[in-house]
């Protein structure tokens, strides 16, 4: 399946990267407009960013989950290092990995660590080396919903699994009503949306369903949606838009996309109280993550069934994927400079304002060491 997926994405990624510069320049233009009247965060960060010998264009693509974080990082970085143009195209984790493995980008963003096949393939583009996973962003995966008259909604893993598998089809279903005794649930059809593109967000969301409700979610977690039925939309912004405009809609998305009035589900866990999707609650959960990568690879294993009070169970970590050695000489200075910045205290401090959580200290310290040793 993974080989078919890579072949299917090959043509897509070629076209996606070809337009990445135009897309990223548009995003950067909007960022620039936002600096009118002064940007204190960018100004404060400017003197702490080491540009070194960085110059020219840096192409990257992948995770749409981290796009809002990358936008904030690029905005601050360009203020300090105007000779570098960073073009990040949020094509999705699967397409981003494919583009990187084809040597089209300096680094990729992915919401899932590389698997063994992808690590083996990376040795073709990383001279005398392989790619490594560098965790940079933590984000809660919010479950957004659009049900008129319902402002607060609690669901558990089993109910979510049945909703996204088409086994619960109406908002006044008995299982939903039992979890929400005070809510006035309408007789309204559920419109469940999933990602149409291959996404690390999908993989992490279904890892949660598989771990927390194995009897109700029988599909293996993958970047591509496995369950039958439902409706689909492209990218995090696409599913968020569908939730906004479709009565009865529900979907999963990074918290930073749950804006403009999108309400989010509180998740029932083994804790006494349902847990809200917040960056603080995601941080409580991510502290239980374990490094399972070897050497300088910092792939993490997450706990999708935390029992601690306030620990939000549906989280993802976005990795920047780069060659440990054998990076292209013309882009290495800019790659190291930018990655050094986003892993720094200043870079990580930008995350909370963008709707994300920083990487725990004990892990980000290892990330900084690995970035400094890239060659």
UniProtKB/TrEMBL annotation:
Q: Which residues bind phosphate?
A: 63-65, 93, 111, 199-201
Signal as UniProt keyword: yes
NCBIfam families according to UniProt: 3a0107s03
**Protein name according to UniProt:** Phosphate-binding protein
According to its UniProt entry, one GO biological process term is: phosphate ion transmembrane transport
State any single GO MF term: phosphate ion binding
Cleaved signal peptide residues: 1-24
Q: CDD domains recorded for this chain?
A: PBP2_PstS
What PANTHER family does UniProt report for this protein, alphabetically? PHOSPHATE-BINDING PROTEIN PSTS (PTHR42996:SF1)
Concerning its family, UniProt says: Belongs to the PstS family.
* PBP domain span: 54-345
Q: Does the keyword Ligase apply?
A: no
* Species of the source: Streptomyces poonensis
Q: Name one GO cellular component term.
A: ATP-binding cassette (ABC) transporter complex
Pfam families associated with the record: PBP_like_2
Alphabetically ordered keywords of this record: Phosphate transport, Signal, Transport
């Amino acid at each position: 399946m993974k080989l078919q997926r890579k072949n299917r994405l090959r043509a897509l990624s070629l076209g996606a990267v070809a337009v990445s510069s135009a897309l990223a320049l548009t995003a950067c233009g909007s960022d620039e407009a936002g600096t009118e009247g002064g940007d204190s965060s960018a100004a404060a960060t400017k003197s702490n960013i080491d540009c070194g010998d960085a110059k020219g264009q840096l192409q990257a693509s992948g995770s749409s989950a981290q796009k809002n974080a990358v936008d904030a990082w690029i905005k601050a970085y360009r203020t300090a290092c105007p000779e570098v143009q960073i073009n990040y195209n949020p094509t999705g984790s699967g397409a981003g990995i494919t583009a990187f493995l084809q040597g089209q980008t300096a680094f990729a963003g992915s919401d899932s660590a590389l698997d063994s096949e992808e690590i083996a393939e990376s040795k073709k583009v990383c001279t005398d080396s392989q790619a490594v996973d560098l965790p940079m962003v933590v984000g809660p995966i919010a479950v957004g919903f659009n049900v008129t008259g319902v402002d607060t909604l609690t669901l558990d893993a089993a109910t979510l699994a049945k909703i996204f598998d088409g086994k619960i089809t109406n908002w006044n279903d008995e299982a939903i009503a039992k979890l929400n005794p005070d809510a006035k649930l309408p007789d309204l059809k559920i419109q469940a949306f999933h990602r149409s593109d291959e996404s690390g967000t999908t993989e992490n969301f279904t890892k949660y369903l598989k771990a927390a409700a194995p009897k109700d979610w029988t599909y293996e977690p993958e970047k591509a949606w496995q369950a039958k039925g439902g409706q689909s939309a492209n990218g995090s912004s696409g599913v968020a838009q569908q939730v906004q405009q479709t009565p009865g809609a529900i979907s999963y998305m990074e918290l930073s996309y749950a804006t403009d009035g999108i309400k989010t589900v509180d998740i029932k866990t083994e804790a006494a109280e349902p847990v809200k999707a917040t960056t603080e609650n995601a941080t409580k959960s991510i502290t239980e993550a374990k490094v399972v990568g070897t050497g300088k690879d910092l792939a993490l294993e997450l706990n999708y069934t935390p029992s601690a009070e306030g620990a939000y169970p549906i989280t993802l970590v976005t990795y920047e994927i780069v060659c440990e050695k054998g990076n292209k000489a013309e882009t290495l200075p800019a790659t190291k400079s930018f990655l050094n910045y986003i892993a720094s205290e200043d870079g990580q401090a930008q995350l909370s304002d963008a709707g994300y959580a920083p990487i725990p200290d004990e892990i980000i310290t290892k990330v900084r060491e690995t970035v400094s040793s890239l060659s």
